[in-house]
Specification:
75% of the residues lie in helices and 0% in strands. With 76 residues, it is mostly helical. It is elongated.
Length: 76
Amino acid sequence: MPYHYSRARKQFAADLAVITNALGDAFSVKCSSIIVREFALCSAVVLTSAKVETYLETLVADWGRAVLSEGLKTDT
């Protein structure tokens, strides 16, 4: 069975791409303000932490639903 990314992982990757692109804009030549760069970097850290929390929550919730829907039994 080939590996495939979970729904949570795909959303996490998409969210990180948005954050990374925003940081790229903040650290480009067009932006010369040091304070804007610092704020952008701090915001990216906080946003990424929130996205990790959401990723883990979604991953565990999806796993729990899969376990319950399959009717898995622990006895042999």
